[in-house]
Specification:
Blueprint lengths: L1 H14 L1 E2 L2 E2 L2 H28 L1 H9 L8 H13 L13 E3 L5 H30 L5 H6 L3 H30 L9 E3 H18 L2 H10 L5 H6 L1 H15 L5 H37 L1
Parallel strand pairs: 3-4
Antiparallel strand pairs: 1-2
Length: 290
């Protein structure tokens, strides 16, 4: 491991040379700043557009998982009729009232949520700028192997975002809204609390779905190995089942599998990716030894 770290440091030093002159640390910071500024401008443009069309965004997107006519709830009710599932699986009521408790609360909500939408829409361009910054430091074979970074990272982010928004968020809202310690307690929640739940679960799922990309990078650096991930599979299985049990509204096995299956697939795909990277590294080391 120490030898690989030394090789990595030496490789970074070699790749920082451009036209025979080595770029200083501050030169790299200046280049990185340019990429980040362009990404920030793109995010700001998306945020302004979201602020301008906020009526649709708030009514149809933000408040979507909080209404019983949301797509996910309608599909759950349809599944009850088609597969004779428990009536508890069909969401017919969300027991809560949303209020605002601050004078500038609604205006702050519009600003924060517009910025959040801008960040989400700007993620693909942010990944593109990161790729442009890292690309000059890579060898030709490394550029070819990582050429699809922006596409795959963006695709996984979008899939995770949709999974969080259409599966995790509505199931969580249903569970939390209808959970009660006593019937004498009414669920009167603030709009900030509601928005925080939707944003955290949706973006959190999008980040979790980046696991294969993260594993690929860590495997390239020699930090993560398929052997370690296989040996940790039992702990990952327990953790995934716990997460699925928490966010599902009922203890039905079908619902738990709906939430947990994508997470299991992500973990297995990550093991496969790590194994592929390790196999390529071993082949290169074998060829270089001859």
């Amino acid at each position: 491991m120490e030898d690989r770290r030394t090789e990595l440091v030496n490789a970074i030093k070699e790749r920082t040379q451009t036209n025979g002159a080595e770029m200083s640390f501050f030169d790299h910071l200046d280049v990185l700043r340019g990429h980040l500024i362009r990404a920030a401008i793109a995010i700001l443009v998306f945020a302004v557009a979201a602020f301008s069309y906020y009526d649709f965004i708030f009514d149809e997107i933000i408040m979507g998982p909080g209404r019983v006519d949301f797509w996910t709830y309608r599909m759950m009710c349809d599944m009850v009729e088609k597969f004779s599932l428990s009536d508890e699986f069909c969401v017919k009521n969300l027991n809560y009232i949303i209020i605002n408790t601050q004078l500038g609360g609604q205006f702050t909500l519009q600003l924060n949520s517009s910025l959040m939408i801008g960040i989400i829409l700007g993620v693909p361009y942010l990944l593109f700028e990161i790729w442009r910054f890292v690309k000059p430091a890579l060898h030709d074979n490394e550029r070819r192997s990582a050429s699809g970074f922006v596409f795959w990272a963006t695709l996984l982010f979008v899939i995770g975002l949709l999974f969080g928004y259409y599966v995790v968020s509505p199931l969580s809202v249903n569970f939390l809204a209808n959970f009660e310690v006593s019937k004498s307690i009414n669920n009167t929640i603030t709009i900030d609390s509601y928005f925080s739940i939707i944003a955290t679960l949706s973006i959190g799922s999008a980040i979790v779905f980046e696991l294969p990309t993260i594993i690929y990078i860590l495997s390239k650096l020699g930090i993560m190995t398929p052997g370690f991930m296989r040996s940790s599979r039992r702990y990952s299985t327990v953790l995934i089942l716990i997460i699925s049990a928490v966010v599902t509204p009922t203890p039905d096995l079908i619902i738990m599998l709906t939430v947990s299956l994508p997470l299991f697939l992500l973990y297995e795909v990550s093991i496969y990716i790590s194994a592929m990277v390790e196999k390529k590294r071993i082949n290169l080391e074998t060829k270089s030894s001859f």
